[in-house]
Amino acid sequence: MRPLPPALDTALLNLKRTWAEGISNAANLEEREASARGGDIAWTSISYGNQFWETHDGDFNARSSTSLSVSDAGFYTFDSTARMIGDLQAWFMKPPDNFSRVMKGDEANPRKLI
Q1: Among 4, 9, 15, 19, which is most exposed with the fewest C-beta within 10 angstroms?
Q2: Nearest to 17 by CA among 63, 73, 58
Q3: What is the mean pLDDT of residues 8-27?
Q4: What is the pTM for the complete model shown?
Q5: C-alpha distances in angstroms, 92 versus 36, 67, 85, 96?
Q6: Where are the domains of the chain?
């Protein structure tokens, strides 16, 4: 049995701006990722090549809706916190403010997740 890697803390954050979903596809190569094309979302761009995030890795709320510690590949479920429920209720009450969510991890860690 192999030892488990150290746990990686992740947070679920609400995006503050709308973003694009382009046509790039890393079919069967998800671990390598695809090169961004015009219209794709990227680390620096809402829409690759012509519209940029205010911050390098996306514009999202600083406070998380919930968090989770991940230690190995598998399926995980975030806890339904009061803040998460409040965020979802706000989305239902004002759908134009629903820009989705981002799962963010420790960006200094080589096993990073975002």
Answers
A1: 4
A2: 58
A3: 79
A4: 0.67
A5: 32, 22, 11, 9
A6: 1-16+62-114, 20-59
